[in-house]
Hints:
Elements: H1 4-28, H2 33-63, H3 67-95, H4 99-112, H5 116-137, H6 139-143, H7 150-174, H8 180-212, H9 237-246, H10 254-276
Helix pairs in contact: 1-2, 1-4, 1-5, 1-7, 2-5, 3-8, 4-5, 8-9, 8-10
Amino acid sequence: MKGQVLFVIWRESIEALLLIGIIYAWIKQHVDSQSGLRYLWGGIAIGIGSSILLALLIYGVFNVLNDTEQSLFMIIMEFTACILIVQMVYWMNSHSHSMKSDIVSGLEQQTEKQNWWGVTFIVAIAIAREGSEIVVFLSGFIMSLNASNAIDFFTEVAGGIAIAALTLYLFSLINHYVPWRIFFNVTGVVLLFLAVSLLLKGVEEGINLLLEYDYPIPDFLYLPAWNSTGFIDDSGVVGNLLNAFFGYRSQPIWLSVIVFIAYWIVISALFLRRKKHA
């Protein structure tokens, strides 16, 4: 859906660019900065290349499967993306305050050993991690790419990266007033809603697949819980936006309602537990 690609690329690119910025600033202060920068760009290239290979692998695997296998593959990728988003938001919530010191500490250990290849490895892993998360998050879009939608997809990708670079620049001017932790917390909440949206999509596609093969399912699970079409129709502009980012359904089935509630109970317990142990 339009907007999801732009948001995910924007949010994840900010993390990747922030990591690169921290490492770049540290290397520039080093006595052998010229050598360090070559290894930095090498690490970035390896990380980006790894992410592109993963995207091509997903696209290739999807296109050799039959219709049922494609449906199952899509469902698995949607569940995987949901888990990865939650994991990533949890990690950022736990490490955003110490991310810079952790990275610098790792770089110092490598350069003390006079091992610039270690710096390349750190950078490559960091970029590949962000890139692979993006690829998995957007796997549904990647698998459905064709001649008619490819231009729109890659335009949103390029737009997300450009807006991320602009956001970083603007934020560097006001970060004394608005800490990065607040930024990541706010966007993290939106990502958690995106995760439940992917989860609901996977659950609904799964139950449709089971019904298609006449698998016995309790009737109430796929019956509409309510109808709010008269208030906000999820096929309209506003409803479609709420559907894409927050999992809104104007006529949700009971299974979706149960999954939505269970998801937020688990998320609340997970983050409250981390807060208690912080």
